[in-house]
Amino acid sequence: MASDGKQATHVGARHASPLRIGGRSFASRLLVGTGKFASPQVMARALAASGAEIVTVALRRVDIDNPNDDTLAAIDRDRYQLLPNTSGARTGDEAVRLARLARAATGIEWVKLEVTPDPYYLLPDPIETLKAAETLVAEGFVVLPYINADPVLAKRLEDCGTATVMPLGSPIGSNQGIQTRAALEIIIEQSNVPVVVDAGLGLPSHAAEAMEMGADAVLVNTAIATAEDPLAMATAFKLAVEAGRTAYLAGPRTAVRLAQASSPLTGFLRD
After folding, report:
1. Active-site residues (predicted)?
2. How far apart are CA 208 and CA 95, in angstroms?
């Protein structure tokens, strides 16, 4: 069955449960990226405000061998699960090489797998992503692959042993929100690993929508980092994720075409 929360809903148990990835439990269901912040100090404060426990870092942007790198030094390793990502890799081989370098330098076996050959929309390459995932899983990595909202690919990745699937809501950094809803619903319904909606979430309401649909978590970067007040926006996303999750567990009713009165239409006014 699906990850903890979805299983709970299917059996009718309405209770909160932690997010479990790679054998670890996390209270927060908001993952945060570290790009585009005005400074490492602003980034650190925004991470704290977000309540996130998993933080992704682009391997091409930091000096992974240097413990004094400004971005890495601002991330408390005891507080956050560091999730190196292969952003910028255009082939599966490049992504695998980046992941291996990161593990050799840090000992971290977690990797957010990104393979994006398209320079304009930064859409992930499904074939190269699957090939790289198979290699990295076989080498013992905890693999969190960024993918198009493709239910067939999501199952193939799950079957090869990835820890999650991370389908996009819309192109990276576009702030367009959930443009792939129909496909996301299928992925969420079928997945036995956590579904983390990644990319395109520009507003807290987008994150709440994903969580209300039953996503296990969301990942946000640009919307927080480029806000006029990143700390306030990080707080807003934190609250939106919590609200969306709570609404999902509450069992929302489906929409209907005709009006349904919330109070009886017969009674003393007509008697």
Report:
1. 112
2. 31
Answer yes or no: is pLDDT of 215 > 70: yes
Mean of all residue pLDDT scores within the chain? 88
Would the annotation count 173 as a binding residue?
Answer: yes
Q: How far apart are CA 145 and CA 159, in angstroms?
A: 13
Cross-strand pairs, 195: 165
Poorest-confidence range of 15-19, 93-97, 131-135, 166-170?
A: 15-19
Cα gap 100→109, rounded to integer Å: 9
User: What sections of the chain are H helices per DSSP?
Assistant: 4-10, 40-50, 70-73, 92-106, 126-138, 151-160, 181-190, 204-213, 222-225, 230-250
Confidence of residue 271 (pLDDT cuts 50, 70, 90): low
- Verify whether residue 112 is a known catalytic residue: yes
**Whole-prediction pTM value?**
0.87
Contacts of 179 (CB under 8 A, 6+ apart): 169, 170, 200
Catalytic residue among 112, 131, 155, 238: 112
> Which residues sit opposite 4 in a β-bridge?
none
Q: What are phi and psi for residue 113, nearest 5 degrees?
A: -85, 115
Q: What is the mean pLDDT of residues 50-70?
A: 80
Do the annotations mark residue 199 as ligand-binding?
Answer: yes
User: Does 116 show up as a binding residue in the annotation?
Assistant: no
106 is in an annotated binding site: no
Helix (H, G, I), strand (E, B) or coil at 20: strand
Sheet holding 217-220, edge to edge: 166-167, 142-147, 110-113, 81-85, 54-58, 30-33, 217-220, 196-198
Is residue 169 predicted with pLDDT exceeding 80? yes
Copy the structure tokens of residue 258: 């005709």
